[in-house]
Amino acid sequence: xxxxxxxxxxxxxxxxxxxxxxxxxxxxxxxxxxxxxxxxxxxxxxxxxxxxxxxxxxxxxxxxxxxxxxxxxxxxxxxxxxxxxxxxxxxxxxxxxxxxxxxxxxxxxxxxxxxxxxxxxxxxxxxxxxxxxxxxxxxxxxxxxxxxxxxxxxxxxxxxxxxxxxxxxxxxxxxxxxxxxxxxxxxxxxxxxxxxxxxxxxxxxxxxxxxxxxxxxxxxxxxxxxxxxxxxxxxxxxxxxxxxxxxxxxxxxxxxxxxxxxxxxxxxxxxxxxxxxxxxxxxxxxxxxxxxxxxxxxxxxxxxxxxxxxxxxxxxxxxxxxxxxxxxxxxxxxxxxxxxxxxxxxxxxxxxxxxxxxxxxxxxxxxxxxxxxxxxxxxxxxxxxxxxxxxxxxxxxxxxxxxxxxxxxxxxxxxxxxxxxxxxxxxxxxxxxxxx
Length: 436
Known about the structure:
By secondary structure, this protein is mainly alpha-helical. The chain is built from 22 helices and no strands. Among the domains are: 1-128, Alpha Horseshoe (Serine Threonine Protein Phosphatase 5, Tetratricopeptide repeat); 361-436.
């Protein structure tokens, strides 16, 4: 039996979720839990082992150790199925065994922890990295896939790790596609149109991986502006039929395709497609969220004049969906409040939802979001300029860098030039803001 110090030293040296400095907030963990569940567990998904591994880590961080162990065990089974190797074991299990070593250590089961450490050593000796100074490509790929689920700075690392894995093992198509998808995610997070080089990379990836409809939809979305309308419509409808035939998943491409339909086909056809998908799979949580989001897009878009029946349908969908994401429904509840503002008979419900959120126990970033959205609600729907300023100030003074903070600061800068009574106060407030 090795000493406690020696054991902890070996654990710290492992490559696994417990050592990758993920450290998400509890609200982020809850969102990630639902996102991973919504990917689905369809057989044949080449990322199924990675999904179970990350789900296991998330459940551990949320305090569900039994669930974590079950999911880590499912990850090992999934890797055996998806890799179709001669042996049940391979380098793809290094991260999984590392996770199990850490889990047993945290549970006080040191003998089991040491057993998994020995398994990791055996695998690394049997399957050394092709490059002496780098990790095994299987480890790089799993680390990359994991990091791409987090913030932009971690996505940049993910892109680099995918590239390293691909250079050492260029025959893994799913790694190549995911590398392009993480580059796409980084590019679009800046709200800029993709450059020609990125579009060409997506085109090549689409040709190499024609079954990946998620990639195909995003490629169509990026090219639609420069294509003939009839061709966009034809391609969108063809993709819709393929997606409807496939298993439901958050990576099916449905959500992005509905956005393409709204922008380039028609709102009516978008609604028909969404409702048809939900009719086929009425109990699938992710599809319900897609349809609810579609109605929200339509109802809250500028220049939209939705009828009451559409508003009622949107409200009903949101009320059905929110309990399905109980630990991660903040934005969905705000969306519901904003839909109520459009209703002929439930506008007071919007204020009630916001007041409930303001009184709830929220993390710092969540408070900032609620203050910003409530401030916008007061300004646009209640014509309450003073109240709006108050809540934009509350959002801005929270030293957490986000879109919502920047939005509140922009509002305050703009209004101080038109609202002379509070110009000096706002000027001083903005000058003294603490940087995140």
